[in-house]
Amino acid sequence: MTHPAYDELAATWKRLHHFGHLQALASWDRSALMPVNGNAARANAMAEMDGLLHGIRTDPVLAGNLDRAERELLDDMQRANVREIRRDWNSANALPAELVQAQSLAGARCEHAWRTQRPANDWAGFLANFREVLSLARRQARYLADRSGLDPYDALMDNYEPGMTARTLDILFGDLERWLPGLVRRVRAKQAAESTMVPVGPYSRAAQYAIGVETMKLLGFDFSAGRLDESAHPFCGGVPEDTRLTTRYREDDFVGSLWGVMHETGHGRYEQNLPRDWLGQPVAWARSAGIHESQSLSFEMQIGLNRSFIGLLAPRMAAHFGAQPAFEADNLHRWLTRVQPSYIRVEADELTYPLHVILRYRIERDLIEGRAEAEDIPALWDAAMASMLDIDTHGNFNNGCMQDVHWGSGLFGYFPSYTLGAMYAAQWFAAIRRETPDLDTRMAAGDLAPAFNWLHENIWRQGSRWTTSELVTRATGEPLNAVHYRRHLEARYLGS
Amino acid sequence: MTHPAYDELAATWKRLHHFGHLQALASWDRSALMPVNGNAARANAMAEMDGLLHGIRTDPVLAGNLDRAERELLDDMQRANVREIRRDWNSANALPAELVQAQSLAGARCEHAWRTQRPANDWAGFLANFREVLSLARRQARYLADRSGLDPYDALMDNYEPGMTARTLDILFGDLERWLPGLVRRVRAKQAAESTMVPVGPYSRAAQYAIGVETMKLLGFDFSAGRLDESAHPFCGGVPEDTRLTTRYREDDFVGSLWGVMHETGHGRYEQNLPRDWLGQPVAWARSAGIHESQSLSFEMQIGLNRSFIGLLAPRMAAHFGAQPAFEADNLHRWLTRVQPSYIRVEADELTYPLHVILRYRIERDLIEGRAEAEDIPALWDAAMASMLDIDTHGNFNNGCMQDVHWGSGLFGYFPSYTLGAMYAAQWFAAIRRETPDLDTRMAAGDLAPAFNWLHENIWRQGSRWTTSELVTRATGEPLNAVHYRRHLEARYLGS
Chain A: residue nearest B47 by CA? Predict the structure, then answer.
C-alpha cells in the first residue's frame, strides 16, 4: 500500500515532534533552573518557536493532505494517527489569529495582576480584567462549537478531554454529588473518635530528595530517561524520551514533596511508556488530560495511600528522617487519610477534592454558556461551598473564587479532568483487583508489578490509539462510571 | 535614513538568535543534565534545528539583501553588523551540502571510534578512519580558500580567528619558540631548589562547589543571568542573557575544579557583557575564539595565578576545606606555579602549554597544505615533543598524537587560538598595569575593579564592532606581539 499523503503528514508531525522537544525542554528549564534575568530572552525564543510550530500546523497544504490521507488505504494504527492528526490540525486552525493573540494578551494581563490581587483579596480589581478574559473565552467556545458541532462548553472541554460532554459529566458528577457530601460527614464522625500521632519535623531537603528518588525507583521510574528536580510548582515536563519531574520542599513537611513526587511519577511513567515505535506521531501521545490525571492519581492515591504501600514506605521514612513513633504504618495510614473540608482545592484531601471540582465545573459552564456573568461568581461560589463543604467563603475571595490560576488566564473546561482522573483511576484499580485479587498482599510484599503491568498494557502502550471511551471500555469492560470510585472511597475511609 | 535591506537582514539574524537560544540550551543540557537514554531524541531534535538554521542562512533571498544592504546608508554599528552578517553568511554558504554532510558523518565516526582507540593505543585503527576526515578537511579548506582568496589553512583558521594568517602566526610563534624552551629550563632549575608544601585532601564536592560559587561572585559573575553546574568536560554554554558554566569535581584535587571555574567565569563574563542593545545581531557576538580564550585566561592565569589574588583565595580555601599549612599564600603560589613538562596539553602548566600548541599548529598546517600525510603524524609528533619539551612519546599514541579530540572530529585551525588567547591576555594586563600601576596592591585588597572595568570597556562591550586587529590596537595601542607575554612569564616564573 502506498499512501503518499499520509507519509507527508507523518513527516510533518515528526518534524513538529523534533521542534516540540526543544520547546518542551526550554519550558521545563524555565520553571526548574532558569535564572531570573534569563526570562526575557527565553520568552522571545519560545515565542519564535510558537510561531514556527503554528506556521507548520496551519500550512495550507495540510488541508488537502488530510483529506487525501483519510481516503488512502491505511492500517489501523495509521488510521488512528490520521484521526489524531486531524484533531491537532483542527485545534491549530480553528481560531482566527487575532483571537488567539487577544486571548494570550488578556490572559497574561489578568493572570499577572491576579498574583498580587489574590493576596490583597481584591475581587473588584480582578473582575475588571477578568470580564475581557471571559468574553474572549466565550468567543473561542463559539468558534470551536461552530467547527465541531459541539455545544460551546463541550467544545472547550474537547481540547483536554476529547469526547467528554457536559451531558455525561452531569450524570457522573450528579451521582457523586448525591452521596459524597454525606460520605464526608460519616467519615469525619468516624475519624473524630480516632487518635493519631502526627510526625514531627524538621525534614532536611537532602533527606526528602533521597526518599523521593528511592520512591520513584520503587514506583518504576526510569532514571536513565528522566530526572527529578525542584520548582515552585511541581510538574511533569520534558518529552517521553526524557521525562522531567519536579517537586518542592518544605523543611516542616515531607508529605507535600513525597506525595507530589508520587503524583508526578504517575505522569512520568505514562510518558515514558507511550508506544515507542510511534513516538512523535499524535497516535503515540497521551490520550487526554483526564487519562493523564488517572495515572498520577493511580500513583499518588490508589497506590500511595494504600495501607500496604504505606507499609513499604514506613521503614524508609524512619531510615531517611530518623525513627519516631508516628512512623508506625497504621498510624501513618490514619494520619495520611484524615478528612477535613478546607478552602483550597490543591490542599484538599482525596474525599473532599471532587466537591471543589464539581463546584468549579458548574460555575464555569454557566459562565461559558451565558447563564452567569463574571460578577455572579462570588455568590455562586459561596452558596456551593456552604452546601457541599459547609464552609463559609463570604467575602474571602483570596481563599475562595480567586484561589485558582485557571479562569484568570483563560483556561475553561479543564477542571473536570481532575475528578475524571480520580474516577478513571478507581476503575483501573477495580479491574486490576479482579485480575489480581491478592493485590494488597503482593503490594505489602513489595511486588507492584501487577498494577504496573496492567497500566502498561491497557493504558500506557495504547497512547491515543483509541478514543477515550473505547480505551476505558477495552481496559475495564464498561464505560466510565462512579461505582468503582464510590466503592474505593467507602472501602478506604469507612473500611466497608 | 531608510535601509530596508539592512532591516530585513537584521530581522533574519534576530530570528536566528531566538532559534539559536533553544539550540544552545539543548546543547548545554545535553552535556550537563541529560539522562543517558535521552540522547537519540535530543540528537534528532538538534539535527532538525540545525537544518532549520542552515535553511534560513542559505535562503537565496539573502544574497541580494546583503548586496543591497552594503550599498545602503548605515551608521557605524550597522555597517559593522553587515560585515559580520556577511561573514556568517559566507561561512554557511561556502560549502556544498554533500561535503558538510560527509564531514559530519566521517568526523562522528572517527571521533566515536577514537574514544576506545585512544585508551587502546590503536593508532592504526584511528588512521583508517582519520584519512577520510583529513581528505574532507582538505576539500573544505580548498572551497573556503577559493571563496575568500585566503590560503587553505588560513581559510580554515578564519572560522575561529578571523584575520589571522599563518604568516603572522609564524612570526608570533617563531618568536615564542626561540625563548620559551630555554625559559622552561631556567624556571625548572630555579624551582628545583624551592621547597613547597602540597595541600592534602580529600576536598568534598559540596565544599568545592561552595568555594567555586564564592569565587565566581568575587570575579563578578552575574548569577541572576547564569548558573554553575557539573559536566564531564567543563565549558561555558548557554546564551549571553543566561550564561551557563560547568566544572567537574575530583575529591582528591580542588585545583582542577576551582581554576576550571575561574577559566569558565572569564568566558562567562565576556558573554554576559557583550553589547546589550545589539544582542542577537552578529556585531554583538564575541569577537573570536582567541579573544574568548584571552578572557578565560585573563581570569584563570593573569588573575587566578597572581600572587595578590591567591592571597584572597587562601583564607577562603581554609574556610571551605579546613585550615592546613599548605594554604599559606606564598606556599600556594609556589605550588600552583610549578612547571613540569608533560604529555597532555590540557593538563600542562602555563609555561609549557604554548609548546603543545605550536607543535599542533605546525603539524596541522602541513597536513592541510599537503606537506604531510596522516601516517606522518607520529614521527612529526615525537620529534617536536623531544626537541621542545624533552619528552619521549615514541609509540605512546594514547598520550601523544591521539590525545586530542580535534583532528579526529575534523577540527583544523583551532589550536592556535589557545595560545593567541594567552598572548592577548598578557597584552591586556600590560595595558591595565599602565593605567593602574598599583594593580597588585589593589587586587591584594580585594579590589578587582580596575581589571574588570578595562576588560569591559575595551573588550566585552565592543563585541564584534571591530576586526580583531583593530580591537587589539584600539585597546592596547599596538598590534598583537609576544613581548608582553614573555615579560609576564619571566616576571611570574623568574621574578625578573
Answer: A18
